Fold these 4 entries.
Entry 1:
Amino acid sequence: MASNSTQTIVIPDLGGAEGVEVIEIAVAVGDTIAVDDELIVLESDKASMEIPSSHAGTITAIHVTVGDQVNEGDALVELELTEAAETGKEESEEQAEPSSPKQQETAPEQSAASMETVETVEVKVPDIGSESAEVIEVLIQAGDKIVAEDSLIALESDKASMEVPAPVSGTVLEVQVKVGDTLSEGDVIAVVEAHLSAQPETQTVSETQKPPLSSEPQPKQATNKPVAAQSTTVMPATDLKEVYAGPAVRKLARELGVDLTQVRATGPRGRLQKDDLHNYIREALSKAREGGGAIPAVPAVDFAKFGEVELVPMSKIDKVTAANMQRSWLNVPHVTQFDEADLSVVDQLRNDWKAQAEQREIKLTPLAFLLKVCALALLEHPKLNSSLHHDQEHFVRKKYVHIGMAVDTPKGLMVPVIRDVDKKDLWQLAQEVIELAEKARQGKLKPADMQGGCFSISSLGAIGGQGFTPVVNTPEVAILGVSKATIKPLWNGEAFMPGKMLPLSLSYDHRVINGADAGRFLTFIVDALADIASFEKDG
């Protein structure tokens, strides 16, 4: 067998429809595609359908253009097949061949003794060409008068969107589905009090009278209801029910979080296309950069008219810090909780281990103790060792404990990350604090040294202050602010005794952490610092 051959992909069975319009071409010459990759989108007045490829290979020619009317068997694209694709050719063709719409069951027989009878009919989901589909619109409600072929609901699967029309005329008694439901063939949509004609030629609602309801495009039929696809406007729709878009565009909009009612359409007859979504996002980002978003830009001020000024360029670190802080503040709902920790035991241990520290040539600072305690707290309260996933539907729970420490450098604020804090003793942490702080001040930190943090500590102890509200370093969900320790009187149950108290402030992302979570976490830190010997026994 030759290593390559050419295959012509043709329009598959369209359920008897003729002259169905090409509304979107999803590939270009030179594209390499796999089996089931989307080639084009077709549309009739009742359904839109994505045509997948029955073979894998490289596209060498495209035989249709947007706006063409196509029929079953028309040439679609030319593919240069790989050997693997040729081997599976026969199987792929069988799998890709769409089935014809399933025949409808006939409605209950009517009595010939009268011109019209009234019966209660359960309207069910017909053959939709797939195992299940999601309800994206419900177009009726109890009490509505409907006529045959009026749309009842709109369904959407991975490959097609379609409206399900009524097979009978009458009054809607009950609607048994809602938006978001997943339906399959045979599921009940609604209960209708149907007005059925008893004339011999219309005694049953036959399959020739019922409109085809599969996901394949169908020929246009006359209807009393307006069809969104016939709209010529390109302005955004005012209601989601009026949006004219296919399944691929709707899926992309959901992934991007775009409200389709805000998007201007440029496709045929006011149809939304993928490019319309991309243009909408580009315009939104451009407006945001220009200060045209929801937050008004700060007006420019000529400070020179008030006195002498000097224009000092921002360093790269200053610019990055400003952007990160603004992004965090605008996106994260901040809450800060405050407490104080007694450092008496920590100071006693540092004094007891002074000789050992000198022998190791390591300065044992309070930050090493804070790092160790915070790591233990993160293990005890894993919710604070997580991040909000970008899909806004999951938490990312981290199985590692990496903690960032804010360092003030001549070039600006930098946050190197100490990895696996929970697995290191106090001496290792103290040594790493010194080394990373020095690298930061010398400008020798690499990007990897500042990535992967789970939690941050920002200490102003050497500078002063009784407290502050640090900004969460998103995508982390919490940061601990440390201020200057002071001597305060502490009541021991019998008398006031001097104690060295360290002010702590925990800022957290309220989308992930609630007040009780933060309170327990901060209390754990306070208790651990007050009794550090029982938490760190190795010394």
Note: The chain has a mean pLDDT of 81.
Entry 2:
Amino acid sequence: MDRKEKIFAYINSNEYVPLKFQEMMIVLDVPESDEEELRNILHELCMEGKIVETKKGRYVSIEHEGQLLAGKLVCNSRGHFGFVISDEEDKEDVFVSGDDMGTALNGDRVLIRIDTGYEGGNHKQGKVIKILERSNRLIVGVVYKKKDGHIFVKADNRQIYAKFVIPIDKSMEAQVGDRVALEPKKYKDGHKVIGEVLSLLGSEESLKSCIEGIILENGIKQEFDSATLRETAKIPENVSEAQLDGREDLRDMLIFTIDGDDARDFDDAVSATYEKDGNYTLGVHIADVSEYVTDGSAIELEAYERGTSVYLADRVIPMLPEKLSNGICSLNPNVDRLTLSCFMEINPQGEVVEHRLVKTVINSKERMTYNNVNKMLEDNDEILCERYKHLLPTLKIMEKLASILRNKRIKRGSINFDFPETKVKVNEYGEPVSIEKDIRGVSNKMIEEFMLCANETVAEYAYWSELPFIYRNHEAPSLEKITSFNSFIMNFGLSFKGKIDKDNPIHPKALQNILDAVEGTPEERIVSMNMLHSLMKAKYSEENMGHFGLAAKYYCHFTSPIRRYPDLAIHRILKDFIDGKFEENSLLKSYVAAASIQSSECEVNAEHTERDVDDLMKTAYMRNFVGDSFDGVVANVMSFGMFVELENSVEGLIRAENMTDDYYIYEESTASLVGKRKGKVYKTGDKVRVVLARADIMLRQIDFVLEKDADKKLLKSFKEKKNGHNHDKKKKKKQLKYKGKKKHG
């Protein structure tokens, strides 16, 4: 037990009486030389919400202090209230009204006092008494007023209620209608924050400024620092002879890449042969990024900080500089590239009976695309089959092997989310022009199977070799979430077979059976998405806990070191082990633990960014169709209305107040809206005909009305609301010009 744990155990013990700092120094017999360390330990325990310093300066455990709870404040975007999600998983969320938040903002870690006298509602109610940690280092919003030597900014994030006030001399001359990035400086009661403008992003209606704001809010770094660029400039553009020492030469082997049409960074290549004994030999060859991104270098530190590449509709924000990601690390055709290869001997039942992990050099023979390979394997395209006749026999072997691997994986219970996803296409100006289904053909699934197989094989190898490692874990879903999902699918006449409780946990195969039941139906996407939301979030960890969704005992991310930091990190560990240079120590164990946490956090930020930009682009695209009718499916029913999803994956809200043929009441037991007079029922899965009433870019929100309710009066009210939001638009036109200013230093 370290010193921090001992001090906390003492404060939490029954014999402890609340002490001031100097009293604690005496009682614990702490020498003056360790005074600063004790202060730091007590501060950390306070920040972690384990102890609290009273108004009289005495330190007490939260358990002894009474009804205190530490957690993250999550505010509601539709009302002035929120919930504090406890740091401890077994404690329920606590309701906090807007008046009881003090100076806390959405996302802050706070300490609250629970109101023991509160008896209403389904949740406990509390009041924020201390901010443990601020989460909003930067706020993006729009200037809505200029008065008395200040500008006033409203945050784009509607979960942030504060009014931001910036003195003119700290405003970078921002005008009404400008979108700005600001730094909060002073927090005052009444949800008022004094801040300073850091940069001007553009006009409030500019898509570019909206995207820049989303990127900034999620902490995504776009520019590489000078040290990283200097190191990158020194990296050679070609593989040298000296780098081939200790590597197996595979340059004459038939190895090639298969990627999307618009891909530019190729970090995996494949090879396959059919052996005389009936087994297959699959080779998965991954770019050896660690050869160029060395431990402790500026490039490596930058990659650690970014954690992952971020893929947006109008751009890619890479983890590594382009010279690496698209150049020397990318497995481009007809050039030598350094790789880490995993050869797997696979029997006809799909079992990996033998494997070999080796440092290699390859020369990819072709840069194939999913579209072309799909045309060859699915449509037997004569022109393509003739053009790539040297690859066709290998592709046929790969197709057969992938089918074997997939069947084995499904048999053991792995979940396959094969529902069609959509992708927003943009023009040269970054404006959305279409929403297209992302078709996954036989080649897409083939490469996916090969990467999954390599990831499992490497993870199992590392586990039994007892290497400090970064695993990719996916825990089983909670009983509460599975019970809720089961209630949801009953709307479609579906349910799980057999009893599911603590003694009979859900098996992934039961979830796959539901996906099989809805495959090819209009509700496939809705059921699949709700199932995804019912599952736990996969995370990186130094401990192997298996992957529920894949029904795999061992899993890691090994195949994408150009765009994911965990892959890069484990490559370095594996190479040292292969070379006999591996030394296990406490520093390495601490590193993989820290890298796991960092990579998981970066992944969440990237996903939020990608999702928010996707929602923005879909909203911007749908602006072109206001007043048009569409077929949709009810995706979710709430007390205030119902969400409807169109075939192109766009989702919008029909507000109950705009359902004019009756007065609709929400029935919680059936999760449906029921007409009070006529008894008409709307529930999840119902097909409806809707009219697009509004697409609000600022809110990233789409409003539908039922086609039968879409009279001129109702649609006019939406237009008036929009005009009210953009009041005096013509008058402000000159003020909305982007000045292109940015604060430096």
Note: Residues 725-745 have pLDDT under 50 and may be disordered.
Entry 3:
Amino acid sequence: MRVIPGVALVCFISSLAYYPEPGGEETPRAKEASAGIDRLILRDLKSHDLRPNAPASDNQFVRRVYLDVIGRIPTAKELAKFHQDTRRDRRARLIDELLASPGHVSHMFNWLGDMLRMKDSYYRIGKTWTFHTWLKTQLDRNRPWNEMVHEMLTAEGPLGKNGPTAYLLRDASMPLDSLSNTLTTFLGANVACAQCHDHPFAEWTQRDFYEMAAFFGSTAFESVDTRKPAKVLADKRFSKANLVTLLQPNMERVVFDRTRDTVFPEDYAYDDAKPGQKVVPRFITWDDAKKKRPSRTSSPRLREHFADWMTSPDNPRFAAAIANRLWKKLFGAAVKEPVTDLDELEDATNPELLAFIAQLMKDINFDLRQFQRAALNTKAYQQQVSVTPPAGESFRFPGPLLRRMTAEQAWDSIVLLLRGPEVDATRTDHAPLMERLVFPFEITHNRKTIVKDREKIFSFAQSLLGDGKASRGSGGRGLFMQAKKARGQDQWLRASELPQPMPPTHFLRIAGQSAREVADDGSTEGGITESLAMMNGEITQALMKKSAILKDTHRKKRSKAEQVEFLYKSFFSRPPHEQEKKRSIAALAQKLELSDVIWALLNSREFIFIQ
């Protein structure tokens, strides 16, 4: 394994203290978590004749933890505030402060949005803004992960009223794919092959897969093509397009349907069941005997029992899956790669470490902030970075990996430089636009007989308009639900507050934001197109012409040397080296502008990497 030159054995003298949420309670397990992780990593390194990297400097740590916890670089003022704090536990205190900040909610939303394939609009389902607001609210409240997942799996009712129903509606027309995605995302269970045949490499059989799918058999994921009922209802008062918008938050829903069952497919080729036979729901277990026990449930509660099983602390994969994912988020590599396949836990780089962090996740009751706090307070996290080892060589965490910023981290950092730290608290919430469209009465969901509900639907629609006027030509599709388009400075928002995802031509997508069609599809590969956007894109032009960082640099009658130092601290979280300072001052003396220095720093490799 290759590491950054100059690494040395780190002296284990820093505090092992573990800091809980303000007002929270420490458990003995949580207090020892960081130290326990370090012991396991150090033992593994020694067994492979490796050593931990040297400790990261304060400047390296501050920039790294800001990017990893709130998704953006720190300001020069925030860096100075950290250095003014002379307490021994100032790193731990900064971690606490960032985990409790609005920026953390924003950053976690981006991360989960990639994992859950969140989009502003799903095909034939319409807007999903209620789902976005629900998730941000859960993150802000620090709701435990098992509770969030449980609610997504059991949510019922119309999308306009109950945001988490969007999770199951995402793949409403493909229930088997939906189950496969669910098991892969939340359990790291590689089951895609088992939809069609017994898995060739894992313990999953096709029968196992269908027995799990049966828990969703009595659920109707109603992805209604509202164009058809809208066509039936439309007259001179309201157009079909507007009625589609009005009907979607009401007709796209998750409901119990006792007439539905799961049956084995017609091409089922094994002797343990017959094609077309009704499937009895059964849980798979991962005990030594690989036994499956039948579920004793009543049909209306099938999904609830499935969610209980999946999110239970007794399910060995659920805690391991999210712990492994969060570890990769902070260290750049998972303990077990890929994060979507935990079928062979012993294949992890460090199986003992994986078991430890999975148990930690259970002990802290799936508190994602507590888990990150434990990882961030380790010596391993606070050591210098390593470069990616050669292909086929395991990474054993002598420190985090040297990583490029994600698209969202790069965008949010540039927006910070444009507008200042106020961007962390700037929120957009379009959910009320959907919620106001929810009917206060029941309607039929039959597209042919819905005409009998026309007058009460139209009466409600008329009340939304206020002025009592509507016509086929008024407002087009956006008559009932149209978010205000951000213009000028208002478009410089954090990635979590912009449309999900942005159009392919936007900087975020160019820099690697996922199209949200496939889970975990964001990219940090970089490339020529991203480099061109950084050099001459719209956001770069705005940064150089009229930005908060440019104004702040000119303030307080700073000398040229002070201006250069301020910019280096703002971009890199460190003062310039003497040679860098001399070169920059000489450039300014030759009639270059501060905006040119800003451009050079933005387009340096140091800016885009997390050290």
Note: The chain has three domains: 28-106+315-404, 120-229+249-311, 494-610.
Entry 4:
Amino acid sequence: MDINKRAEELVSKMTIEEAAGQLQYNAPAIERLGIPAYNWWNEGIHGLARSGTATVFPQTIGLAAMFDRELVRQVGDVTSSEARAKYNAYQQFGDTDIYKGLTLWAPNINIFRDPRWGRGHETYGEDPYLTSELGCAFIRGIQGEGEYLKAAACVKHFAVHSGPESLRHEFDARVTPKDMEETYLPAFEATVKAGAEGVMGAYNRVNGEPACASEFLMRKLDEWGFDGYFVSDCWAIRDFHEHHRVTANSVESAAMAIKAGCDLNCGCTYAYLLAALDEGLITEKEIRTACVHLMRTRLRLGLFEEHTEFDDTDYLTVSSPEHKALALKCAERSMVLLENNGILPLDEEKLRTIAVIGPNAESIAALEGNYCGTADRYVTFLEGIEDRFKGRVIYAQGCHLYKDRTSGLAQAGDRYAEAMAAAAAADISILCLGLDPTIEGEEGDAGNEFSSGDKADLRLPESQRILIKKIKSVGKPFIVVCAAGSSVNIECEPDGYIHAFYSGSEGGTALAEILFGDISPSGKLPVTFYETADKLPEFTDYSMKNRTYRYAQDNVLYPFGYGLTYTDIQCTGLEYRDSTAFVTVENKGDRKGEDVIQLYIKDCSEYAVPNVSLCGFMRISLEAGEMRVVELPVEGQAFTAVDDKGQRKRFGNHFTLYASTKGAEDRQCSTDIG
């Protein structure tokens, strides 16, 4: 019997009360049918989250900076392996609580359209193509390729969701058909067609419809052939009547959601399904259809089988040396070198003393990001440098992350003098600055004074801006290491500048390796770094005008795809034939290094984006002096554009391909097509 028929048969044996009870995230057991209790809510966007010890990888935006499909797939594979290991152990001891199941509500494939959005670091950045490619790779890793799903991936938040956090429960995102098809939907279409088992709706409305009960969005899922389960964001259905005011009460909200096709309620509103049934607002068939979808997923996971290939996954899998080695590899490839006047890599023979200064030097939060597990060991930036450097390391906190003092009894600026003394005593200072998930994150998780986790602007907190000026006045060389999940303008000219994102439990080791030249940096920006938020459209404006590298004008600090290395790898020749780009790449530097070949296309037709679009990428490693020709497939969709009615097709007859290793604005070589 196939999965669908097995699910239908199982649900047919349930009473309507039992079937309705299965549609809440904390589904109770049905002992007479041998169905154990199951909690659907689990997280894993960059490693298994909120379930105790797990491997902590760089936050998703850092994984995106690797521009590496295979490494992202491996992160997904490790995440689901650890989920299986934990699940098996929890089952043995009778624990079916939240964060203990195999349905991971990951990845987050929303487009990071505005750098002020606090949750942007959960995403793969601002580009639909990069997000699609990495999202599909992560799903392949999570779900595996066996007879059963190793774990079930769930793409979120469908759709058109990217802040403001403070308005998300009531906000109506107004989007043109062109922007919808061109920017907001491609990653969802790609991941659904790649087999994502779940889709999670968003809190907001989309052009007037609640995202968790949108006829437009549900129709898109049907068009794409989706046959998994649909889950609401947590307590989003309650927003229908409490904030969106499209229904009068919980009964009507539950009815609206299930009739639209929302199978599972993360929240409690589906407790009113039977009342909706009694009032004639829904049918038994609608309840049972949703339940069939959920049982189908549990069957695909093998949860009702006597034995599956994953049942023997041992608990020693969790945070194993191999998994932590992968976390280190990802951290090494995620950090982006933005400025270097020649001071990096550091010459140990010329250094006796290094000052490590700043509120993120010893911070674990600045490694973790949000939606994270708990590592069995963290290597902070300070510890990584101390472990690696044979000379003297002096540490000074410098300032609070955002407050004007570190001690409540002290005067403002109570740690500046100590930091200046450390900088004066050292040969060079490493300033570890930035943000962390307590002030840049999700509403309810982040507690900054600005806007429920969103940023007010793109500047560092004032306490850190003052610290930079103090250290600069000492007159010694200094390097800035910024831990943040988004675009930041540090407003200074350091001798070197590394954007580390939130680099995971091994971040300190990776940073030290880069600083001292054990490896060459190779991360690339998956988002545009803007000069100022003042030139951006209103945060609540969901049009793409002057947003992201495809539309940005006159406000770019560092372009999408930018990132320096310690060598000089360049694209020196580009040809296109038979749907393939052939790029000649040469390492003109004097050391081995990794870099990312990026392929962009310029469409000159009426409806094309005004700038260029990413249409291919490949991470490579070259020895000093090595030259190689690499092949990058170019999908047919790269030659399409979207008109004002939202129709995607090929409009143009002339295109230009560009290849570069340094981002969307650096065109090292090109070729015309058509």
Note: The chain has 19 helices and 25 strands.
